[in-house]
Amino acid sequence: TLNEDEKSDDKSSNKVIEILSFNDFHGNVLESGKNIGAAKLTGIIKEYQKKDEASDTYGVATVSGGDIYQGTAISNILEGAPVSEMLKEIGIVASAIGNHEYDWGSDKIKPWADEVGFKFVAANLIDEATGEAPEYAEPYVMTTVDGIDIAFIGIATPETLTSTKAENVVGLKFLDIVETIDKYSEIVRAEGADIVVALTHSPAEENSDGTITGEAAEIAENAADVDAVIAAHNHKFVDGFVTNNITGKQVPVVQAGYNGRGLSSVKFTLDDDKNIVDIEAKTRELYNEENLPVDANIETIINEYNEKLSPILAEKIVDLDFDLAHDRNEGITPLGVTIAEAIREAGGTQVAIVNGGGVRAPLSKGEITLGDMYTILPFDNNVVTMKVTGAKLKELIQHGIAPEGFGWGQYSGLTVWYDSATKEITSMRLSDGTKVEDNEYYTLTSIDFLMTGGDSYNFDGYIDDVIIGEMRDVVINNWKENGIKELNYNLLIDGEDTAVIPEAMAGIIDTSIVTLING
Prior knowledge:
This protein is of the alpha/beta class and 519 residues long. The protein contains 14 helices and 26 strands. The protein has a six-stranded mixed β-sheet with strand order 4-3-2-1-15-16, with helices on one face. Strands 6-7-9-12-14-13 form a six-stranded mixed β-sheet, with helices on one face. The N and C termini lie far apart (68 Å). The mean pLDDT is 93.
């Protein structure tokens, strides 16, 4: 039964086509905290589909901005199977290719799409060996909804090269985004497209004044012929319009947060000649809404998967006596330092560096389970020990201070002084108080993702590298053996290094004493 607002669409000869999108779902099929889960997300999308079925002048299509599968224990262990069940149920049409689609290797991408019955789209993605698109990617997808032809032109962000394992994206080339969209918009218009949408894994951000910026906004500003841009990648909630520099028209840009917490809508009204006469853009923050509908079929399927895995995921790893906060965009964090310290101890090195974006959630005090470990460390990176010069160590730490486009670097074994105005490091000392010298070699533990250029790190010049294990396993084993200790998290200090530590004391002085000396 339709309510009065829904019936109103039938009162005009105009057609209303609504394009729904979610992005950066990251395998969050289970309801937890602000994550509403697959059953509720499916239930919400089906409400729109029921309206479509009951109306002759309203139609709906659902797409994704990418990063669908990787990120939770239930999805990682089952290689995305529960997510695929949800995608089948909602009848997804297409998805952009996100950087995390590559985390388990590109050979997984096409089987996912084939099993569900949708297409991954990325028009700007080229295999350098062939000069053509990879076999798992289409440049665009055309679909017809209530007689209206819609083209989704895919865009993969060039950040993919530095935000997944380098070995999984060898040989990929990313073409100019706007030039690519202009090329394919002409092609799809010639094929009869009434609506052209850039379906991207490009980031956007809505500023306090309502303006929208970022890679996706640049597409809306500069592409010659797009009617809407769907954004992703940086986990923001966005809905608004950007003025196109060529046509002057207002182009909607939307992004639906992450983990299924939001759902974006671009609603087109078209006249009898299929001309667009009105566009609305809205992103629902679903986690703030009450009484969300639940799809019983998906609820049953997800519960069955969860019941099978529950004994495995419920395995106790360690008890945590205090909260460990983490926000990758908010500096050096307690959890970031704690994880870095765990791999440093495992590697037996002086220093450890991990990427803040690789730690995906904070930890609350209480029993920590295997499921929690997959939540905070979903990526299958290898831990590597090596030696680097003091100059290189300084460069690596510097790269992770207030970075743009990725999370702050996290580290342990060092105290760093810097100038917050310039972000430049002025001094570094090891935990024993020894000052780091440019020409000396120091032992370092890190991960292969960073060593191969992840987050644009440059590890050139390291020596004596040894892989010691997979990161999640290394941290688990360390915490099982040693527990989780409360550490000094004040490792980045704005100001001058005023510590005076006699060389005779350098080998025996305690970290806590150094902290006191440092203020």
